């Protein structure tokens, strides 16, 4: 249920209204816009009648929300959410995702391998114009015999790269027990395989860091938004949605980039939407074309894998771009972004 | 098997070589490029040994093609195929698809309904910059109780619109028995449901008209190229491939636009690739964004449904654009095309 | 819309009612049961109000049917349809599919190859207990370079095998133009790739032969029933539905047998349901297990590929059973059928 | 790599061989059969040459395993694994899954709701012949606003039901931090959404309890076996695989039961395979038919949701069976099991 208040409703009147709602056992989400205030009622609202609220003088309209997600819904929060990454950390260059003016790129290697490797990659992607450094410390691998990432040590190396370059860092969390190592991580990634690991999502709701939530391999758009809702309902509204290719019947690419997710998510939600073309196709020469396509579809950002020596990468060797190609791509992407008056 | 001849091989020597191959019961496809001549061997080549051909003085190399398609393969025909629509017909404005300089748009209503309707649509799409007029005369409908199209009468109306506007016309063929009515159709569409109607494809191979071949609802890229091969192996090399959305597990759009098909098809085949964003999403407000995304992915053309009064359309009412929106879209698409130095 | 008449409605009263309906431009389907008569109204019934019919004395109830299919719906035709194959042909052993007492098996090679081959197969499958002989004369092959079937000559060989064994014959139709060769075919198969070839379906609606309609590679249950509706609405109610595996993301079997289709189709439709385990898996050793599973799911029949020398088969070599395995399987299937009091 | 030792190889010789292998940094899995001993080499074996092992007198053959899973593979462990549930606990009736003689049923409500509810359900399913009691204490729900389960309290209630009925208990684990509450749980379920939660799987590898591992919504067979491998490679070989329906393009059932998984998993792996028909279809009236089909496909067990008052269930109300229907079903299933000489 969402309740839209009349223009000019006073703060005491609003507070009184909110108290009443809470006494019914419901949660409340307040979105204060320039013109109007929108109150979202959270919890089991199935027995409420919208008309009952109209009796209150400050209420303009009250209506049911048919979507199962609420805090993630644009009905609840009409204006775009802008997620700020790296804010307030000394020496770190802040990055905003979802501001409608930029298309920031998160770039870096699939996995953190060695100090030299991550340092070189960090400087290379910064030079090319990337705004956030990525690198996997904990790697979700299908096989228990594959390289599982450097773990805590990998995060330490990312922190060092942040210090040297000023780039905020993004890395994946796979288990709640490791969260203690993410204090200096600026953007926490939840991977496709954990997108319905509800306990992990709840925990991230209580942790004060932006989250990059990837759509599951066969996750529906509704499920993605419900998973965002798990994080938001637990207190963290800084969620960025990420489309990274879905599983279909055709295997000519590793996954199938569902580019329609961008306009659709923008329609139904206020959260920023990032595209990961690297995992979507899994083929180096195709990454650039998909990135262009994503920018033209209105993506709020991109996540692209870059490795200084892709053919020697310890994982995903076939999809990482060398710095030279990444640089060229960034220039091309800038031209596509410019069509809508944006920069990378 | 493809055999690449040495530069400077004489015509008599080539003819002699071709005769030898034919005597083995194989077909031959000759692609004469600026520098070299490529001979494709068609049929069951499983018992041939590439090395045997090297004995012939004019042969440079001979190798197996692993892809099951041959004539549709870029190995056979390294240069892009440009398909000319409406060529040589008096009063018709020719349109080239696949020339790398333009992104022609095929536009018009889902179905031809009345003379007024198709005439108005034809003038509207021409004014906005479309290069080919589309309109369904034979409609493949899931239900036998739905409007099945005007049939032959619909084609007559399209012909009239062609005469008035000069736009070449494109319409769908569903049955071989109706082919006699397609003499004045400039581009024959094979719909998703008939993309493996092999008898229809064979017949189109013998008919001297360009074909717009749509990918099936769950057609793989390989199957699409094999279906193109059916047309080509029967004598017609003017095939345009069309991605129009595939069937996945998520139903938030009617189908799922597989934008990766554009770069992949360009890599493995020389045939032009067109995107149909209207059927891909089935939602009016999303068509434009997907069209932008398709242009940025390198599509050689677009097919977009336009109706002067979409809400009264006899079919697919929810996905057709009104002329005003189509005009705006064409302007925006022109900006995206310009990034690669192309025009619409 | 379906209208259920009161018990005891007289024939003249019924006829008068039917005339009234026809004058509204609607078609009528009458299902006369032991107790009650059900009138199905076909065509655009969107403007009718069910209540209006209640004014008529002979009408008990009138209600909208939400399913888009009508003649194929169990609401329209509550009793099971039993399709009789080979009826009234001299020397042919009739076979009933859908009688609830038997689970007839349609068996034979993927393709008719030679006279010896089809004769040997015919006698072998008859000996093992198959009730209908199958064999492809027109073969839908993904590649234009693969064996396309013997065509008309193949049908002649099937007719000969019918004469010798008394088994009715089943073979696939791919093009309307070949229908003239199907006069002596007892059960006409529509393959997965043609399941939405609506012109072909309409033609089969006018041809007086039972049809075995296969579900498309990614056909929904609703689409399958709508395709059956195309045949039925054109005059032929002898339709057998066939589940033959669907396309999913996992390729460990050729297709994925959707065994749930059997109980679901039985719930919503009165048409018999046959399972084709051979195409569903494409793996010889798995065919038997899937056949067992299909019988336990309540299938009304099975279609199984049998070849006297599978490893030399001209197509689908990996999925055809040799006669010895087929014989053993038939004995095992008999035991599963017996659980529900049925025989093979 | 698997190494098969000669019949009669002495224990000291085997130990010496194992030591040598370990010195190369590899793990070892020994499977001692009646006739021969098979040594599986775990870890990165890519640089080993099988021929090198033949120099050792006790080695009969050495060969590479192409499947990415090793301990889960039938090549490594040719005999069926039998998992014993509830063994050695006083008052508990042990249940074996995978013995080839029985098809044990795991039954009970979707979620533990109240003491009365779980007690009534426990006695009802025991009376009907179920061998293990299920009930969800931690519930993975798409929405954060849905009932999330009673948690630890739910497990206490299950323990009480175990004490009263003697049935071993099965319940789902969602987070490593809750594992401490699973000491008295006899079979730990990993749900579809956590089937690639690799940290959870590793932890279960170190916990001494049988695991029921469900296939993910779009998990491939290979991925399921790789997830089993995560558990096994960490020390726990008591893994039961569970097919519970996969996600496809057609939504007429909640998921699509992939019955072919049973014979295929039996072919490539030695682990027992259980089918969950309740989640596969999500429709009460269909559960029984799918259960029959699963037994006929050779499933080693079934998991079926039973609730004494399904229409009042707090979750999955539409798919749970009332005890009366479950009793009837068990009798029917017994007849299908009897075809292969098995009991329920």
- Kindly report the average pLDDT value of chain A: 93
Global Rg of chain A: 21 Å
- Binned, the helix content of chain A reads 25-40%
* Strand element count of chain A: 14
Apparent shape of chain A: elongated
Q: What is the CATH C level class of the largest domain in chain A, in words?
A: Alpha Beta
Oligomer: homotetramer
Strand content of chain A: 15-25%
Kindly identify the CATH topology of the largest domain in chain A.
TIM Barrel
**Whole-Å distance between the termini of chain A?**
38 Å
Biggest sheet, spatial arrangement of strands of chain A: 7-8-9-10-11-12-13-14
The unreliable regions of chain A are none
CATH superfamily of the largest domain in chain A: Aldolase class I
Q: For the report, how would you describe the main beta sheet of chain A?
A: 8 strands, parallel, barrel
Summarize the helix and strand pattern of chain A as letters.
EHEEHEEEEHEHEEHEHEHEHHEH
- Integer count of domains of chain A: 2
InterPro entries (chains A, B, C, D): Aldolase_TIM (IPR013785), Class-I_DAHP_synthase (IPR052899), DAHP1/KDSA (IPR006218), DAHP_snth_FXD (IPR041071), DAHP_syn_2 (IPR006268)
Keywords (chains A, B, C, D): Transferase
Domain DAHP synthase ferredoxin-like (chains A, B, C, D): 1-66
Enzyme class (chains A, B, C, D): transferase
């Amino acid at each position: 249920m969402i309740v839209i208040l009349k223009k000019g409703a006073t703060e005491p009147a609003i507070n009184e209204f909110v108290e009443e709602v809470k006494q019914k056992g419901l949660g409340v989400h307040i979105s204060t816009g320039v013109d109007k205030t929108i109150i979202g009622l959270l919890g089991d609202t199935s027995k409420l009648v919208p008309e009952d609220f109209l009796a209150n003088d400050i209420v303009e309209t009250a209506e049911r929300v048919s979507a199962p997600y609420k805090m993630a819904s644009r009905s609840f929060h009409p204006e775009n959410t802008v997620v700020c990454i790296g804010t307030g950390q000394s020496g770190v260059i802040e990055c905003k995702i979802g501001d409608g003016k930029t298309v920031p790129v998160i770039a870096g290697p699939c996995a953190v391998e060695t100090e030299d490797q991550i340092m070189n990659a960090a400087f290379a992607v910064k030079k090319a114009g990337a705004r956030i450094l990525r690198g996997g410390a904990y790697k979700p691998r299908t096989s228990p015999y594959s390289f599982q990432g450097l773990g805590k040590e990998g995060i330490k190396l990312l922190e060092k790269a942040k210090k040297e370059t000023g780039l905020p860092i993004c890395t994946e969390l796979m288990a709640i027990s490791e969260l203690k190592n993410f204090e200096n991580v600026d953007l926490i990634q939840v991977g496709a395989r954990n997108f319905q690991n509800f306990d992990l999502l709840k925990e991230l709701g209580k942790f004060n860091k932006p989250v990059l939530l990837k759509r599951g391999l066969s996750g529906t758009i509704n499920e993605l938004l419900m998973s965002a809702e798990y994080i938001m309902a637990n207190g963290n509204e800084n969620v960025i949605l990420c489309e990274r290719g879905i599983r279909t019947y055709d295997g000519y690419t590793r996954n199938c980039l569902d580019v329609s997710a961008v306009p659709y998510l923008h329609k139904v939600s206020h959260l920023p939407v990032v595209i990961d073309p690297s995992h979507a196709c899994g083929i180096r020469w195709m990454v650039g074309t998909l990135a262009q396509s994503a920018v033209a579809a209105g993506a709020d950002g991109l996540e692209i894998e870059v490795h200084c020596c892709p053919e020697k990468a310890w994982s995903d060797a076939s999809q990482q771009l060398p710095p030279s190609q990444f640089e060229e791509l960034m220039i091309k992407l800038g031209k596509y972004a410019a069509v809508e008056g944006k920069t990378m």
